[in-house]
Amino acid sequence: MKNWAQLRALREGLNLQGREAQYTIEDGCILYGQRVCIPKKYQKNVLDELHTGHLGMVKMKSFARSFVYWKDIDKDIEDAVRNCVDCTRHKTDPAKAKVHYWEYPSMPWECIHIDFAGPIFEHMFLLIVDAHSKWLQVYPMKVTTTKKTIECLRDSFARFGLPWVLVIDNGSQFTSYEFQRFMQSNSIKH
Question: Is the dihedral of CA 143, 149, 153, 155 positive or negative?
Fold first, then answer.
């Protein structure tokens, strides 16, 4: 480490707690990784600047972590946002979704849930889960069209039989006319 004497002199103001090896000095600034270490006497000023746009706690922390550092910066940001009248007044609390409990199926393959996961390594995955046994089937797919989704479901249904109920979200593959026809022709509720 360069400039040990200078770093030790600043140790008190930054509360480095004996972790000097993780710090460097460039152009008179102490860096923690790529972030500038802010001395105690300037932390309030930096907090005020970070908080100017009233970004909210998550964005403010993310922005701060990209450029500046001091011990307990997260706690200081949380306190600043919680104590800001404008932030608390205009804070958007996401609406609480009503919890819907599914009745436990009495037998395997009575009710299945399907959805897509990905992309992972340029593939999407059709996930099919039996609500009774928690049996999981996974179909890797390059394209997630309604036609390809129905092909995967036909393969699954040929192995395990038709379910009584299919739980789906509002993905375009599941809301299409072709998918609705497939469900009706197989007498599957959804």
Answer: negative
Count the alpha carbons within 13 Å of 136 in the hemisphere toward its beta carbon: 7
Quick: pLDDT tens for 31-89: 888 888 888 899 999 999 888 888 888 888 988 888 898 888 999 999 988 888 887 77
138 and 82 belong to one structural domain: no
Q: What Å distances lie between residue 77 and 64, 66, 80, CA to CA?
A: 9, 14, 5
Calpha distance 130→111 (Å, rounded): 6
Same domain, 52 and 85: yes
Tell me whether residue 51 is in a domain.
yes
Please say which residue of 38, 58, 90 terminates a domain.
90
Q: Cα separation of 128 and 152, whole Å?
A: 10
Q: 38: helix, coil or strand?
A: coil
Domain extent at residue 141:
111-186
- pTM beyond 0.70: the answer is no
Please check whether residues 69 and 139 belong to one and the same domain.
no
